[in-house]
């Protein structure tokens, strides 16, 4: 009885300590990102201006290396991050000067086609021939000539992005701003790849690619970006210069042209920067974007990643059940980073590494961030009867943000919820960005950008990307970013990463688990 009485006296002294102990052991973790604790629009603007100050950043250039160094400094200032790099040796392609004369008259050149064959300072001279779209470049019509070619515009029906359209899972457009029967379109300088290859095979001397846009809007345009040498020189000209060339040809007499693309290949190194924030387990959520680009909107993903890292590092480790690794990838503008046989850039190299780690539990998922808050530009007729079109900023709209998500309904629903909560308008959550092929794993091989290699390596992936018409030209700076929209998207995808931490891996993976088993049993992957 005396023991029970003593225990009764001691219990009131012990009991008050229990709630305080429980609170210390289980810190309150945020359900959502506190916007007051995240980067403001002003902060994002400052980062974007700093990024723009580096100028165009072709892979391995001094500007690119300086930008990566700056990103490293920014991440080094975040408490708890562990930094490392993946280096690659490349031969950088440098433009030393490009010029064009037609019939003895100088014609303004907007840019060389990257990785063109060098003519040296002396250039090459040959007759011009205009081969319209749809006309094959052959030895019969192009040998010994400089081929003039019109760049095509791609067009994708908006219907495809809706749930019943084939690629769509969910559309968030509360303002009903997307015309269901309309289409998304933009000029496709990537078509120069096929033109230059065909011209080289046909024995042509060079290629001039004519844009529908004015010189001022395409100056410095950079595409395609294979990282492999073409067998002929090539250059871009604007709509006015294209008309000048075609007017010279319209007389029906042979027109001689001289094309100079003076370029050099310089051995150098480039690197992927990794910044790892340890969590409760070593299993990684990888957040990725590329660092080589020509304009702020092309690769503003790293800016969001800086602020996402700052926010996540401020949380107790108990609120980060998984490790988060930030991957600032190189080789986006040098797709054949490791040689002619593999076209995936630094993203593909990292994807292969993560693929090997996945079945051992080392990787949970990948979130790829590209072109956030891309302002919409409309291609409209130029004034005063000038040829072609010009890009004009839309005062109210951003470009459609396409968000392919791998084969997991819980993962897609997670993204859908955060997109709607943060009001990231004009967003389509997609199954993929290529037609389904049920004979392969994954079924949708294309994700539209950096997310593609991770999806093809059968990793759970979320890959937001827009397709702004301003993408390939450094003439468009920070004014092409809608900062409020970028911040909303940054908050939404930080929330996605926050929720991926405690999410069951079976929900994260969805059908990816079965597809990996099918691949191991011999089901073909993507070509």
How many individual helices? 15
Alpha-carbon distance between the two ends: 81 Å
Radius of gyration: 26 Å
Helical content (DSSP H or I, runs of 4+)? 25-40%
Structural class: alpha/beta
Instruction: Summarize the biggest pleated sheet.
Output: 12 strands, mixed
Shape type:
globular
Secondary structure: number of strands: 19
Low-pLDDT segments, ≥5 res:
1-24
- Report the mean per-residue pLDDT as an integer: 94
As a percent range, the share of strand residues is: 25-35%
Overview of the structural elements:
The protein is α/β, with parallel strands linked by helices and 527 residues long. Helix content is 30%, strand content 25%. Strand 4, helix 5 (139-142) and strand 5 (146-150) form a beta-alpha-beta unit. Helix 11 packs antiparallel against helix 13 (483-500). The longest helix is centred in the last third of the chain and has 18 residues, at 483-500. The radius of gyration is 26 Å and the shape is globular. 49% of the residues are buried.
Based on the model shown, name its key terms:
alpha/beta, twelve-stranded mixed β-sheet, 15 helices
Short summary of the structure?
This protein is of the alpha/beta class and 527 residues long. It is 30% helix and 25% strand. Helix 3 crosses helix 13 (483-500).
Helix and strand arrangement:
Blueprint: H1 2-14, H2 17-25, H3 41-53, H4 62-76, E1 82-102, E2 105-106, E3 111-112, E4 124-130, H5 139-142, E5 146-150, E6 153-157, E7 168-172, E8 183-187, H6 192-202, E9 206-210, H7 215-218, E10 234-237, H8 239-250, E11 256-277, E12 281-290, H9 301-313, E13 322-329, H10 345-358, E14 363-368, E15 375-381, E16 389-398, E17 401-404, H11 409-421, E18 427-430, H12 451-456, E19 461-462, H13 483-500, H14 505-509, H15 512-520
Helix pairs in contact: 3-13, 9-13, 11-13
């Amino acid at each position: 009885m005396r023991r029970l009485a003593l225990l009764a006296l001691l219990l009131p002294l012990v009991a008050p300590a229990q709630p305080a102990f429980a609170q210390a052991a289980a810190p309150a973790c945020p359900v959502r990102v506190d916007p007051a604790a995240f980067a403001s629009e002003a902060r994002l603007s400052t980062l974007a201006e700093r990024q723009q100050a580096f100028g165009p950043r072709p892979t391995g250039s001094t500007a690119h290396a300086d930008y990566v160094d700056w990103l490293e400094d920014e991440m080094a200032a975040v408490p708890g991050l562990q930094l490392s790099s993946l280096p690659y040796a490349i031969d950088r392609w440098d433009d030393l000067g490009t010029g064009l004369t037609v019939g003895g008259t100088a014609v303004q050149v907007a840019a060389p086609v990257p990785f063109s064959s060098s003519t040296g300072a002396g250039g090459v001279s040959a007759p011009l021939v205009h081969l319209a779209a749809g006309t094959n470049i052959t030895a019969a019509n192009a040998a010994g000539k400089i081929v003039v070619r019109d760049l095509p515009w791609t067009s994708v029906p908006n219907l495809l992005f809706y749930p019943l359209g084939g690629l769509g899972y969910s559309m968030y457009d509360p303002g009903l701003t997307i015309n269901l029967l309309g289409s998304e379109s933009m000029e496709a300088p990537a078509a120069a790849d096929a033109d230059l290859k065909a011209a080289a095979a046909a024995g042509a001397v060079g290629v001039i690619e004519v844009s529908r846009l004015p010189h001022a809007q395409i100056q410095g345009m950079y595409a395609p970006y294979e990282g492999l040498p073409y067998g002929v020189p090539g250059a871009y000209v604007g709509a006015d210069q294209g008309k000048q060339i075609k007017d010279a040809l319209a007389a029906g007499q042979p027109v001689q042209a001289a094309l100079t693309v003076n370029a050099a290949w310089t051995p150098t190194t480039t690197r992927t920067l990794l910044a790892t924030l340890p969590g409760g387990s070593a299993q990684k959520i990888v957040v990725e974007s590329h660092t080589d680009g020509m304009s702020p909107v092309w690769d503003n993903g790293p800016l969001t990643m800086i602020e996402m890292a700052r926010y996540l590092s401020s949380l107790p480790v108990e609120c980060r059940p998984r490790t988060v690794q930030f991957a600032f990838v190189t080789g986006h503008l040098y797709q054949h980073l490791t040689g002619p046989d593999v076209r995936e850039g630094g993203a593909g190299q990292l994807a292969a590494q993560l693929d090997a780690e996945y079945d051992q539990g080392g990787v949970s998922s990948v979130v790829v961030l590209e072109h956030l808050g891309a302002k919409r530009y409309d291609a409209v007729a130029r004034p005063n009867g000038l040829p072609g079109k010009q890009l004009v900023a839309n005062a109210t709209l951003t470009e459609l943000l396409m968000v392919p998500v791998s084969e997991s309904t819980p993962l897609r629903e997670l993204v859908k919820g955060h997109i709607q909560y943060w009001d990231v308008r004009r967003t389509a959550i997609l199954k993929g960005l290529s037609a389904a092929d049920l004979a392969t794993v994954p079924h949708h091989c294309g994700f539209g950008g950096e997310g593609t290699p991770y999806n093809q390596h059968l990793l759970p992936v979320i890959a937001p990307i827009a397709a702004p018409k301003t993408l390939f030209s450094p003439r468009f700076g920070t004014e092409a970013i809608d900062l409020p929209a970028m911040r909303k998207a940054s908050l939404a995808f930080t929330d996605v990463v926050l929720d991926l931490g405690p999410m069951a891996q079976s929900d994260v993976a969805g059908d990816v688990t079965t597809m990996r088993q099918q691949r191991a049993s011999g089901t073909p992957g993507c070509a």
